[in-house]
Amino acid sequence: MQTIDLDILGVKDGMRVLDLGCGAGRHIHAVFYKAYVHAVGVDLGFDDLVRTRKGFEQYPDVEPGSTRVFSLSVADATRLPFPDASFDAVICSEVLEHIPDLDAAVRETMRVLKPGGQLGVSVPRYVPEWLCWKLERRYHDTPGGHIRIFRTGRLKELFRKTGANFRRRHWKHGLHSPYWWLQCLLWDRREKSRAVKAYHRFLVWDIIKRPWLTRALEKIADPLMGKSVVLYFTKAATA
């Protein structure tokens, strides 16, 4: 399930791309096979990185001498182990809502991005996320859960203050919001609920098959109730 659009981000051959908070690897896998790049994934969770590594093992072998390279590391978003201006592009998808020291994470993200580099950020959209919080406290009040709800303007301003120029916004995963609302409504019995299981099967089928009907429905649902808001920035070039 890809949230950041790699074409809008501008991923192309020769880039060094960071997936900050890569989780199980959905974006770093896509980047790696999008172009001949050095894709770097970092996350606090070692087990997630193991899953990401196994995900690469499922792909066909990269041709000998290929310039496609990937690297994985446990790292803290507020103290990234990279020199200044290390990456041509940075992906930060569904990460910032988890981090207590938000300002430090934003500064580090911008520090490792090259002047003129591209940044794609996604967070849960305000209204769908607010509804989840209202429907069930435990949705967010868990270790490692969401600790804030973003308004788009605040997020744009955070990055603007660190030298990012806003380029574009869109929404994603409009068909996923009802699934999370349903989980919140049925929280104590969600693991056994036939409705939750049926909706999950539908989402998995949609992700794998991508039929024209659900693609059309997404174009309608994303602006109305997309689960995520996606913002794209360019780091200001230095003189």
Q: Can you offer a commentary on this structure?
A:
The chain has 239 residues and is α/β, with parallel strands linked by helices. It has a single domain, classed as Vaccinia Virus protein VP39 (Rossmann fold). It has nine helices and seven strands; from the N terminus they run αβαβαββαβααβαααβ. It has a seven-stranded mixed β-sheet with strand order 3-2-1-4-5-7-6, with helices on both faces. It starts with 5 loop residues before the first helix and ends with a strand. 34% of the residues are buried.
Shape: globular
What's the end-to-end separation, in Å? 38 Å
CATH 4th-level superfamily = Vaccinia Virus protein VP39
Order of helices and strands: HEHEHEEHEHHEHHHE
Low-confidence stretches: none
Determine the CATH topology. Rossmann fold
Multimeric state of these chains? single chain
Let me know the largest β-sheet.
7 strands, mixed
CATH hierarchy, class: Alpha Beta
Instruction: Output the number of helix runs.
Output: 9
Number of spatially distinct domains: 1
Structural class of the secondary structure composition?
alpha/beta
Structure summary, number of beta strands: 7
Mean pLDDT: 94
Strand content: 15-25%
Strands side by side in the biggest sheet: 3-2-1-4-5-7-6
Radius of gyration, CA atoms, in whole angstroms: 18 Å
Tell me what the CATH architecture is. 3-Layer(aba) Sandwich
Helix content: 25-40%
